[in-house]
Task: inverse folding
């Protein structure tokens, strides 16, 4: 299987270059002021230009209005919008129509009951990201280092591509892929030496561990041939 690897919350040229050199498939940039990974538009513009088509650029927003999205799109020129708030299916459709970009909807997961909402999004989202449900007192919806029970997704039947996030790091990404059979993994806090501060070696380790998991999954799929 081909595994999409996304490094999210990048904010410096050094860590972006590491992600690109290690062949990350997606690089994520956060536009949400309460987040320690929030980017100003001028920084996003410079980092976005540095990608040079080597990975898909993802803009993460949380319940952003049209004016905010327009400014982000103009600065970053993203390939994908990641909607990480309480956006409805109708809002997703509206955003796709206005900005002509594919959207990935992040859904918080704690129990199998949380998957019921998938029915609302399967006809409009281009990709789903399953993330750990944040605690009630949290000030942001993701990047908290929390892990959910991956067995919730073990037998999921979803026509859409989906990714897994939430507390992933180099030591557990293989298990997450094995249990969920997700087509992609997304990491942020799991490659940080301090909150919001990415570590180049941790990025390298995560991507290499994810690629090893990808190879292992391919061997299982093809019966070791």
Result:
């Amino acid at each position: 299987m081909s595994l999409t690897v996304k490094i999210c919350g990048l904010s410096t040229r050094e860590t972006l270059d590491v992600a690109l050199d290690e062949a990350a498939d997606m690089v994520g940039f956060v536009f949400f002021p309460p987040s320690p990974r929030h980017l100003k538009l001028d920084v996003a513009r410079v980092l976005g230009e540095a990608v040079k088509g080597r990975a898909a650029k993802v803009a993460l927003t949380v319940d952003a209005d049209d004016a905010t999205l327009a400014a982000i799109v103009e600065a970053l020129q993203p390939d994908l919008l990641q909607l990480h708030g309480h956006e409805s299916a109708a809002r997703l459709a509206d955003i796709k129509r206005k900005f002509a970009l594919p959207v990935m909807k992040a859904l918080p997961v704690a129990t199998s009951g949380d998957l019921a909402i998938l029915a609302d999004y399967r006809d409009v989202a281009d990709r789903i990201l399953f993330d750990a449900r944040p605690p009630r007192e949290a000030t942001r919806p993701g990047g908290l280092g929390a892990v959910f029970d991956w067995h919730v997704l073990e037998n999921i039947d979803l026509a859409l591509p989906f990714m897994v996030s939430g507390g992933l790091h180099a030591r557990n990404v293989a298990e997450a892929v094995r249990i969920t059979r997700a087509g992609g993994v997304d990491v942020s806090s799991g490659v940080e030496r301090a909150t919001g501060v990415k570590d180049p070696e941790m990025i390298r380790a995560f991507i290499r561990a994810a690629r090893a998991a990808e190879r292992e999954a391919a061997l299982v799929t093809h019966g070791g041939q």
Summary: The chain has a mean pLDDT of 92. Residues 200-221 form the longest helix (22 residues). The longest strand covers residues 103-109. The chain has seven helices and ten strands.
